[in-house]
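Per your request, structure below.
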């Protein structure tokens, strides 16, 4: 009899554990933190409470290093990669901005003249994402019954995470400070409109917002190199043309995103129906343009301290609504960091100045000498050269030969490490460098030549004459954390790829992975 009862209890225990491990979450909260650094989570932990980052790191499945396998990820391409489970070569979002095929101007990668904006003059849609997303697959699996909401500082972030079938995607408009969206999404949500009209909206309170340290200055001790240990104070009323853009680099934007995330949970009863719901939120953890010391600022420590509190409040709201074990929360970084470095004036460092305008002009003169006096080079943008493809076709010039001659000329420039042609990426012999650039290539979006600059060289432009970008090839420690849904806490030291996030999340939801996702599920989440 005792043996029989023991067998029954053992079977019950195993069945219970299996059921817990295979419970579909009622609510998934995808948190992308723009420029989050794993080393900063460690450096700044003395300023954290117990319910935010510390709880995620102690109770979650923590991957210490996630990489993006394509050149120069940014806030748009990184989030699109997370949610599609593939690289820009397939999903089509190469950068936040792209070059217009009509006039070669810089436009949003999500520009779409077919759709108007609500609370914005921008015409945008998620259609430039060429493949399905996690959220698309959830909508398909539930026959449209799952709710999907995305809130982010910028349109590209919101649209990348919301996908094509979302209930709503919202971002802070740069000139009005209100939550904006696109008419691509047809469902009306009163709770967003009510917030925009309330006295809590950024548009109403922007002039009264003052950012200053939340803790005593002696609490911000992470950097022994900080040169300006003073009580900073930043207001936004004086910057009439760029106040909301500047505010997006402060903790106030994270408070807005967290507020709208909690509002969505409560107003739409996320996680309370028969089908899982999804909430995608994007926070900011980058540098502040007006920081007194751009390299090692007190501002960045204050941003993390306040973000920790926002994360804690969000976790509490999810726990209250559905219970942590009925939710799956994942936190990922965009995998890059805008250093905004300031070098000592007398420093004699290796490298030099690379001037894109001179590069463009000299290359055009060289091509004129070979092919005739025409404007062959239309644009230098983001270390890419755009040719006048129509002109090349009209003149019946061999496109491959044209590219190779231009690449042979550019490789002689000081500071140029390598030049890769689009033909090489699509048709050339394989090597790791070409494959990396190919992952970040998308036909019709990227340029004709890709220029790799040597680390340490400074990119000097007229666009930002006081803060030129200096090339760095070192990786940023980008963590990925999964929390809730009966996951067993563990630290994972192996390097994972950003494309592994999407199939792992869809596995927990018991739905198909996005249609271009080819990477395996993270074994710790099986």
């Amino acid at each position: 009899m005792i043996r029989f009862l023991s067998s029954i209890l053992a079977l019950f225990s195993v069945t219970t554990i299996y059921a817990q491990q295979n419970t579909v979450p009622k609510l998934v909260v995808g948190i992308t933190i723009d420029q989050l650094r794993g080393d900063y989570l460690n450096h700044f932990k003395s300023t954290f409470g117990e319910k935010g980052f510390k709880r995620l790191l102690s109770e979650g499945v923590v991957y210490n290093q996630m990489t993006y396998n394509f050149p120069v990820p940014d806030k748009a391409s990184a989030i699109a990669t997370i949610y599609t489970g593939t690289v820009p070569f397939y999903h089509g979002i190469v950068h936040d901005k792209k070059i217009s095929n009509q006039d070669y101007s810089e436009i949003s990668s999500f520009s779409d003249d077919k759709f108007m904006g609500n609370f914005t003059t921008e015409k945008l849609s998620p259609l430039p994402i060429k493949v399905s997303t996690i959220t698309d697959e959830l909508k398909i699996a539930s026959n449209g019954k799952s709710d999907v909401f995305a809130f982010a500082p910028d349109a590209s972030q919101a649209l990348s995470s919301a996908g094509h079938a979302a209930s709503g995607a919202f971002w802070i408009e740069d000139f009005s400070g209100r939550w904006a969206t696109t008419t691509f999404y047809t469902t009306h949500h009163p709770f967003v409109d009510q917030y925009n009209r309330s006295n809590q909206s950024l548009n109403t309170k922007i002039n009264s917002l003052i950012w200053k340290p939340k803790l005593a200055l002696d609490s911000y001790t992470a950097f022994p190199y900080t040169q300006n240990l003073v009580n900073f104070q930043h207001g936004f009323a004086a910057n009439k043309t760029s106040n909301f853009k500047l505010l997006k680099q402060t903790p106030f934007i994270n408070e807005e995103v967290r507020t709208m995330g909690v509002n969505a949970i409560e107003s739409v009863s996320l996680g309370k129906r028969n089908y899982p719901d999804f909430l995608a939120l994007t926070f900011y953890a980058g540098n502040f343009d007006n920081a007194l010391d751009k390299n090692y600022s007190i501002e960045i420590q204050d941003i993390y301290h306040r973000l920790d509190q926002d994360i804690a409040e969000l976790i509490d709201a999810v726990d209250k609504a559905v219970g942590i074990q009925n939710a799956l929360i994942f936190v990922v970084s965009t995998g890059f960091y805008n250093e905004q470095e300031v070098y000592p004036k007398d420093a004699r460092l290796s490298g030099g100045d690379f001037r894109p305008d001179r590069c463009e002009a000299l290359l055009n003169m060289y091509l004129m000498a070979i092919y005739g006096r025409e404007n062959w080079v239309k644009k230098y943008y983001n270390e890419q050269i755009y040719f006048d493809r129509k002109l090349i076709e009209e003149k019946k010039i061999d496109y491959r030969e044209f590219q190779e001659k231009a690449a042979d000329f550019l490789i002689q420039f000081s500071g140029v490490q390598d030049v890769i042609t689009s033909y090489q990426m699509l048709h050339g012999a394989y090597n790791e460098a070409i494959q990396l650039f190919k992952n970040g290539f998308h036909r019709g979006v990227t340029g004709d030549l890709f220029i790799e600059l040597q680390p340490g060289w400074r990119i000097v432009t007229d666009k930002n004459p006081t803060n030129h970008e200096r090339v760095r090839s070192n990786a940023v420690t980008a963590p990925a954390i999964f929390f809730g849904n009966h996951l067993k806490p563990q630290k994972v030291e192996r390097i994972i790829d950003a494309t592994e996030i999407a199939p792992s999340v869809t596995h927990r939801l018991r739905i198909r992975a996005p249609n271009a996702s080819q990477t395996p599920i993270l074994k710790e989440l099986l």
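Residues 7-20 have pLDDT under 50 and may be disordered.

Regards,
D.
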